[in-house]
């Protein structure tokens, strides 16, 4: 790439926008092609307010909270509390958290295991968290209130629920595939909806246990459901609860096929800490794919390993992975696609 092409690729990667005056200047004099100047510009751009686009675009696409500002998958009759204002606040919480992570170069482990989030007064009251005042979002320590990081955010908890109930399947599958990057086969055709017991109230866990009696379903659900069960302490719009809609006590215990057991959000986060390397590798894969606008290839394996090693050597900070990426052969060159043969 020429210096001008590199400036454009870099700007759309980090800002989803055109280069600013400073980036145009180093493109014009060619100094952007020098690794030391490229590093200076990357660090500057990641600290700029325009880096919010990384939170909205990259993190939002990867972790599936993009579009939540217009999410309509909640039954308004059952949950009138889910107002447009609340939906906007929930989305703003998530974007503000990830903007902070990018601009402050916080370790990516904060995504899953931090004890803080960003709240305004209205959202804090919805979550039941005291002593937060005003419309402005501010950083708040929320570990003692069953919050902190992505897993305690109402945006993802709502988006991974059904309109009238929670879904351990949706939440577990989101954790397994979207967050950790593990692949799962598609569900078999004509899977029936979960059915409650007509004689007595049934928990979602009981309904899923009946569903899993089918061997065609059990193989995948044995991996998916436990992760989702650990989040049953949150209702379909992300409020913490100890009873479900039928008044039955919440059971948020989980047991994996390898014998691992944990309970609730704290237990789930402790389990996810043991998957740090897997999470870091998946982060690097998604970052590379986003930067280049394509799927990762077998030939990218070495670069992904270097990105992950750099991040591990720098306390899990994402800027170190970005620097390795923008200095790579893949980022600094245009990939030549094979011509498609025309039909005779």
Task: Provide structural commentary.
It is a single chain. The chain is mainly alpha-helical. The chain contains 16 helices and 4 strands. The protein has helices at residues 3-14, 21-28, 35-47, 52-63, 84-103, 110-113, 121-127, 154-159, 168-179, 204-211, 215-229, 264-273, 276-292, 301-313, 318-326, 329-332, and strands at residues 116-119, 138-141, 253-255, 261-263. The strands form 2 sheets. It has a two-stranded antiparallel ribbon with strand order 1-2. It has a two-stranded antiparallel sheet with strand order 3-4. The chain is globular and about 70 Å long. The mean pLDDT is 91.
Mean pLDDT: 91
Protein structure class: mainly alpha
Q: Main beta sheet, described?
A: 2 strands, antiparallel
Q: What low-confidence regions span 5 or more consecutive residues with pLDDT below 50?
A: none
Portion in helices:
40-55%
Strand content: under 5%
Radius of gyration: 22 Å
**How many extended strands?**
4
> What is the straight-line distance between the termini?
35 Å
How are the strands of the biggest sheet laid out side by side? 1-2
Count of helices? 16
The helix-strand sequence is: HHHHHHEHEHHHHEEHHHHH
Outline type: globular
């Amino acid at each position: 790439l020429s210096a001008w092409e590199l400036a454009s690729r870099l700007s759309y990667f980090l800002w989803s926008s055109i280069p600013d005056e400073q980036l145009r200047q180093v493109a014009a004099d060619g100094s952007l092609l020098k690794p030391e100047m490229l590093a200076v510009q990357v660090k500057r751009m990641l600290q700029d307010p325009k880096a919010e686009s990384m939170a909205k675009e990259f993190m939002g696409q990867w972790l599936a909270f993009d579009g939540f500002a217009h999410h309509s998958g909640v039954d308004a009759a059952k949950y009138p509390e889910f107002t447009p204002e609340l939906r906007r606040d929930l989305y703003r919480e998530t974007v503000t958290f990830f903007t902070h992570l990018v601009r402050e170069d916080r370790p990516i482990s904060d995504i899953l295991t931090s004890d803080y989030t960003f709240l305004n007064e209205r959202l804090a009251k919805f979550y039941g968290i005291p002593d937060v005042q005003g419309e402005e979002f501010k950083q708040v320590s929320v570990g003692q209130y069953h919050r902190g990081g992505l897993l305690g955010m109402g945006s993802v908890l709502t988006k991974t629920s059904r309109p009238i109930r929670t879904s351990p399947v949706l939440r577990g599958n989101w954790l397994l595939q979207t967050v950790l990057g593990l692949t799962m086969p598609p569900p078999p055709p004509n899977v029936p909806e979960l059915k409650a017991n007509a004689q007595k109230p049934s928990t979602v866990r009981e309904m899923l246990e009946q569903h899993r009696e089918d061997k065609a379903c059990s193989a995948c659900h044995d991996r998916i459901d436990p992760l989702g069960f650990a989040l049953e302490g949150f209702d379909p719009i992300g409020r913490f609860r100890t009873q479900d809609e039928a008044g039955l006590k919440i059971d948020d215990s989980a047991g994996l096929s390898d014998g691992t057991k944990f309970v609730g959000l704290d237990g789930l986060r402790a389990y996810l800490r043991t998957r740090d390397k897997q999470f870091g590798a998946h982060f690097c894969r998604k970052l590379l794919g986003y930067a280049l606008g394509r799927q990762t290839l077998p030939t990218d394996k070495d670069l992904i390993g270097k990105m992950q090693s750099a991040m591990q050597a720098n306390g899990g900070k994402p800027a170190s992975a970005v620097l390795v990426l923008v200095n790579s052969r893949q980022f600094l060159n245009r990939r030549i696609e094979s011509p498609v043969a025309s039909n005779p």
